[in-house]
Design a protein that fits this description.
Layout lengths: L4 H21 L3 H25 L4 H31 L21 H15 L6 E3 L3 H17 L6 H4 L2 H16 L3 E3 L8 H21 L3 H22 L1
Antiparallel strand pairs: 1-2
Helix pairs in contact: 1-2, 1-3, 2-3, 2-5, 3-4, 3-5, 3-7, 4-7, 8-9
């Protein structure tokens, strides 16, 4: 029975992503983001449960990727499609199934395609045991979903006009796909111990994230992802020179 505990948690991730998909199609981007965050929470704890119970399996690995494909791959693609629709049809209600939707709206699905490729590579890449090569799909999902949260809850922020520009949105989608599959070594936030000297960059990342969120709220999320990537690159270069 205990062998199925991590798989059950993974299925909760998949369920959260499935609900978020429906909400994203309906244009309820705030609720969609909430369920994606819940799915990412389950995604973190399924691996934790597998290690704690010593029941890691190939089935769990494949199931985890399939769940992530929905929660962190399909949903951000749908959200980007909705944002593109809103930017091209500012006076219309969210309705992706409308007959007169511009082809540009569906460019958002390149995020879904890029996420699928990233997850497939992760399953066969033995270099990603204690770090990542390319931006993890949950981080990318949070980046994309934060754009909808900014428009909904911080429409007067300096980022809002940029998010309402379809060409900026397409650029963000392309950059996110490149980050997902780039040969960039990014550190994981998992602590093996609490030693400050060995984990200083993790403590810096967590403290910076908390301060930015308290100060800027949802606008902070894209900045946090940027700090994460830059800090990882600097750290990787520093280690290679030592």
């Amino acid at each position: 029975m205990k062998r199925q505990v991590p798989n059950f948690i993974t299925l909760l991730n998949l369920l959260s992503g499935s609900v978020a998909s429906i909400l994203a199609v309906q244009g309820q981007l705030g609720l969609a983001a909430l369920f994606v965050a819940l799915g990412i929470f389950f995604d973190f704890f399924d691996g934790l449960a597998a290690r704690a119970l010593d029941v890691k399996s190939d089935l769990g690995l494949q199931l985890d990727s399939l769940a992530d494909m929905v929660t962190s791959g399909l949903v951000p693609g749908l959200v980007m499609c909705q944002l593109l629709f809103a930017s091209l049809h500012p006076s219309a209600a969210f309705h992706l199934l409308s007959a007169d939707v511009s082809w540009m709206v569906y460019v958002g699905f390149i995020i879904t395609l890029g996420s699928a490729y990233r997850l497939a590579k992760f399953n066969i890449d033995e270099r990603q045991t204690d770090s990542f090569i390319g931006l993890p799909t949950p981080a990318n999902a949070l980046l994309i979903l934060s754009l909808g949260l900014i428009l909904n809850f911080q429409p007067d922020s300096f980022m809002a006009p940029w998010i309402q520009n379809p060409y900026v949105l397409i650029s963000i989608a392309v950059v996110s796909v490149c980050l997902l599959n780039a040969e960039l070594k990014l550190f994981a936030l998992k602590f093996k111990n609490l030693n400050v000297k060995q984990n200083w960059f993790r403590y810096v990342m967590i403290l910076t994230s908390v301060l930015l969120l308290l100060w800027l709220q949802f606008v902070a999320i894209p900045m946090i992802i940027l700090v994460y990537v830059v800090l990882s690159v600097v750290l990787s270069k520093f280690k290679s020179q030592v």
